Amino acid sequence: MDNSDSGKNKKINEVDLDEVLPIIGEFGRYQKLLLWLVCLPACIPCGFGAFNQLFMSDVPPHWCSEPQLSNFTAEQRKRIYEQSNVTQVKNGCMRYAINWTEVLASSEVHGDLEQLVNESWPLEKCNSWEYDTSFVQSSIVIDFDLVCERDIYPTVGLAALNLGGPIGVYFFGVLNDRIGRRKSYFLCLATLIFGSLLTACAMNFWWWATSRVIVGLTIPAVYQIPFIISLELVGPNYRSFITVMTCMFYTLGLMLLSGVTYYVRNWVYLALATSTPFTLYFIYWWFLPESPRWLLAKGRIEEALKILETLARINGTVLPDTFKQKLKQKMMMERTLSEEKRLKEGPGVLALCRTPNMRLKSILITFNWFANDMVYIGLSYYGPSLGQNQYLSFLLSSVVEVPSCLVCWLLMDRWGRRWPLCLAMTLSGISCIVTVTLPPDAVITTLVLFLFSKFTISASFLIIYPFAGELYPTQLRGIGIGTSAYIAGLGLVLIPFINYLGRENLVLPLLIMGILSVIGGITGLRLPETLHYKLPQTVEEGEEFGKNWTMADCITCVPKRPSEHSNSYEDLTEKLEMSPTTETTALATGSASGRSKFTRQQSIMETPLDSSGVVKMTCWF
User: Fold this and answer.
1) pLDDT of the residue at 533
2) H or E stretch including 387?
3) pTM, whole model, 2 decimals?
């Protein structure tokens, strides 16, 4: 096969859906209906499954059970422990090793039991407890006696939930790329509901914890799959909007969860109320289409054409005959073995650390992602414990994410990625650290600082993902994002234990998260800015990008446009317009320089695509 035939075949095989979407509608009526009625509501179950556990493990006031005092009220028995000066007794973990029947028989006091207490009495461990259910009516802590020596068990349950995440992300990621987005989503949703049903049926703690691992398998996969379907159905100019809107609907799910938990106080009913309503989502089976990009990548041309024709018809446009012909030509051709080998080969994970600059950027990206994950999830877990009403505190901590996303969306195209990331993480960390200086009774001030910290870390969490995607070169983007996010995800297993320290000192977890956030924000300044720059494509370009970093670059808050001939990274904002004739000439001649002028940086995120133009779910983790 000569070079001309090879070039022709390659051109036919490279069917780019982004070229036809502006013609049939990048964000027309079809995409709007699908987005607002199907894809965005499909993101809500993630927040329910991720955070309903916080309200299943509420710890009510408790004290040792005293069967010999059954003739007295629960309030009278409670005062024995509340008014004790012995810490272990006051905490409800030790009881007086006495015979209360004999004590009452030899005393004339029958009303105030605390007057009979002699704090020099010997102590023994409690083997059963009573609970104050005036506020916390139901909890796994009550049903499974998870107090005193077993008070770390709810924390273990949260760690179990987070442990399932990395496993599920890989498993559903593979399924997503093999059997398609549509089937993967419903399988993921069924897994979440099944795990929640097991949670509601739990007879002991270890059954309950195992069921939480099953639920954790679907988080965040149950959110990412509809997100990817949305990205693959719209044009490049609307991917930023899709990103922000999916974040908004995720936040909406958290706000709805605060209302559900307020009205449903029984943990068994809560497990059911936050999962079984989503069985209605299986109605989407008849409305949610498969991704046409995925179908094209799998060679299922007729199915892809049918979806695209429906899209064009509802949008009031027509699918070009030239595009149909191009697809039919591709369907009749077979890729040569050498082409298949070329598509499969690529640099491995070691390429992230093989050269100095790439190694430094990979370490900094991973650390910043780790810090963002830890602080964001840590503050989300910590929210209900602050303030005087845990439901209101959780609601407020969710509401602040809405303006955070909007502000971040506006700033990133003006101030770039690096300084907004640094400022957001640093301010979040400082507001956490300041809480250490507050007196214990400054509950409202602590809550306000917490909400500001959650506002800023939510912004940085939105920045770090696209920033990482822009810093990694195209050849390493999928594996780079996957490695960084996977390592950061494993850190989520630690955050429940950090929050566990807050049982004794409420501000200690905030101090730890604050220091981590400040360090992450400061080290992030060492990363090169990506706004206005052509994204690196090869591993070699990735090594060169940011290699000449200086302190002058660091202190530049507003990114400057690079010169037209600064190495291989042209100023893409010039938006060089080429006529169809010029474009055809450039394509025919295979001009690399002409081709690079078309490369346009996405305003918020650079979506990692594989060789067929498909968003690979495994790349996102």
Assistant:
1) 77
2) none
3) 0.80
